[in-house]
Amino acid sequence: MIPNQTTLPKKTGKVKFFTTLAMLLIIIITSAVITDVDFWQLFMNVGQAGYILDQMSRPDWSYVSIVLGPLVETIRMAILGTAFGALLAFPFSLYVARNMESNKAISSVLRFLMNIIRTIPELLLAAVFVAVFGIGPFAGIIALAIFSFGMVSKLFFESIETIDEGPIEALKSSGANRLEIMRYGVIPQVISYYWNYVLFAFEINIRASAVLGYIGAGGIGIFLQRALSQVRYDRVAVIILIIFVVVLAIDYVSNKVREKLL
Amino acid sequence: MATTQAIAEQRPVIQLVNVNKTYPNGVQGLKDLNLSIGQGEFVIVIGLSGAGKSTMLRSINRLNEITSGDIIIDGQSITRAKGKSLREIRRNIGMIFQSFNLVKRSSVLRNVLTGRVAYHSTLNMILGIFPKKDKEIAYEALKRVNLAEKVYTRADQLSGGQQQRVSIARALAQEPKIILADEPVASLDPITTERVMDDLLRINRDLGITVLVNLHSIELARKYGDRIIGLRGGELVFDGPTAEATDSTLRAIYGEAILEEEDNKGEA
User: Is residue A36 part of a domain?
Assistant: First the structure.
């Protein structure tokens, strides 16, 4: 028992909590009704799922040698896309961060543009670039670059905004100019965050680039789409396994590196 | 000491002429301040928090803008200086902060080297190319504060007192004419406080650098200062050799000032 409990004013907002809960439930149920969600379908199709799983449990190992090339291409796309995006994100974030004394009007326009870019899903970006540059990895790389740029910029400029301003003042008082202040007062404080975000973007890009091929933007995804449309689940299994192994390996390495960074 | 007064008259290295500072919220930080500080003086500025000590110090290297008046550093008006010439004046003024303001993730040497940045081309600095001589200057500065063995240690692995001495070394690496120290010992314990103050005094005596220190401890002020400046509500209420800063004189500053504090807070 808490002594003097009666003196503690009662927390208001219980009504608010239940209203929110009720509204959430209403939203979920109406969404289900509108989109025709039928839980029965889940059970009705167990047989179909069983067939697919059965096929997949006997992977066509000979297919490995065919998809190895596209797999390497997928990884290359992810590397290049991340690199281009991250390279652009670096100066962009330094300019756009609110504590960097940049031109307020320009930086808020830039931030606005970046937020728009960030709302576009990468699959949509890739579809657009496939239409512009044609089928192939180039479209995928550009799509990944734009996605990485948006992601790294957002995370990076936000960490720049939380730095200790002390060193900035110290450098300013020693007669350093703006670029020098950034180089010696700001960047050393945030560079490890930057690499952390770049690696994080790379992890996501590896996964994304595997799917991008599906719409013709290069990489292993084309083969996934092909195998699926040929109903060759033994090959689908190989592709999924191989992507799984690569993603796992890269996630592991990148996580280790990121632990070291922070 | 009468001698320091004489030096001040000879060759003022810092001059404040009718300096006023009004904050945007209407609070007057500095009121018609006139001061002249000579080459090689060790001056301590005292006053309660909100008396304008920090405002004054930060106006001297123009981390703060003043509203009217003029501040002249070694014959040049910093108030009117712009761009490169402002940065060149600042280069001659080292500053020490209460919170050290080191880059905690960088090594001690890196931190001290930042004091050299304003001497070189921006391009070289972006690329991180420091001449060998600079590293020697930095190392010399560290030796002067007895931290030579910590050159490659990360700054955040040092104690508060050591960090403050690194920041003194950084100021020294600027090879400045003036060092401004804004409450340099406020976050340190008594023993490290003494080491830091001793370092500042030694720098003043050995290198002839003019040192201006903000303190709120009168005891420390008397122990180290040649000359004491007292501020109250942004006004100069005392300026004289340490010997003249007697209890009764200082009571005039502090006794009633506490009452005035109430309508004067919000800035330091």
Answer: no
pLDDT digits (tens, 9 = 90+) for B220-243: 888 999 999 999 889 998 899 988
Place of tokens 């040929």: A230
Q: Predicted confidence band at B246 (pLDDT cuts at 50, 70, 90)?
A: confident
pLDDT at B264: 39
Q: A1 vs B77, which has greater pLDDT?
A: B77
CATH superfamily of B1-92+180-268: P-loop containing nucleotide triphosphate hydrolases (3.40.50.300)
- pLDDT, one tens digit per residue, over B36-52 is 999 999 999 998 888 89
Characterize the bridge pairing of strands B76-77 and B235-241. Answer: unpaired
Q: Which of A85-89, A209-213, A223-227, B99-103 has the lowest mean pLDDT?
A: A209-213
**Cα→Cα distances B55→A220, B31, B75, B110, Å:** 64, 11, 21, 29
**Does position B106 have pLDDT exceeding 90, yes or no?**
yes
CATH number of the structural domain spanning residue A90: 1.10.3720.10
Look at residue A22 and tell me if it is in a domain: no
Q: In this predicted model, what pLDDT tens digit does every residue of A92-142 receive, in sequence order? A: 999 999 888 888 999 999 999 999 998 888 888 888 999 999 888 899 999
Taking CB atoms and an 8 Å cutoff, what residues of chain B touch A167?
101-103, 114
Determine the Cα–Cα distance for residues A150 and A180; give it in Å rounded to an integer.
26
Q: Which of A94, A174, A178, A192 to mutate to test the interface with B (most CBs of B within 10 A)?
A: A174
Helix, strand, or coil here: B227? Answer: strand
CB contact under 8 A, B99 and A166: yes
**Would residue A8 count as lying in a domain?**
no
Q: Which two tokens stand for residue A91?
A: 């100066």
Which are the contacts of B163, defined by CB distance < 8 A and separation ≥ 6? B100, B102, B155
Residues 6+ apart with CB under 8 A from B218: B46, B245, B250, B254
Q: Which residue among A164, A174, A180 sits closest to B122, beta carbon to beta carbon?
A: A180
Going by C-alpha positions, the residue among B214, B193, B246 that lies closest to residue B48 is B214
Question: Is the confidence at residue A3, as pLDDT, over 50?
Answer: yes
Cα separation, A213 vs A123, in Å, equals 10
Q: Which residue of A has its CA nearest to B64?
A: A173
Of B88, B103, B122, the CB nearest to A167: B103
User: Domain-by-domain residue ranges, chain B?
Assistant: 1-92+180-268, 99-175
The structural domain count of chain A equals: 1
SS3 A35: coil
pLDDT in tens, B140-184: 999 999 999 999 999 999 999 999 999 999 999 999 999 999 999
Domain that holds residue A80: 64-261
Distance CA A47, CA A253 (A): 39
- CA-nearest residue to A187 within chain B is B103
B contacts of A174 (beta carbons < 8 Å): 90-91, 94-95, 114-115, 117-118, 170-171, 174
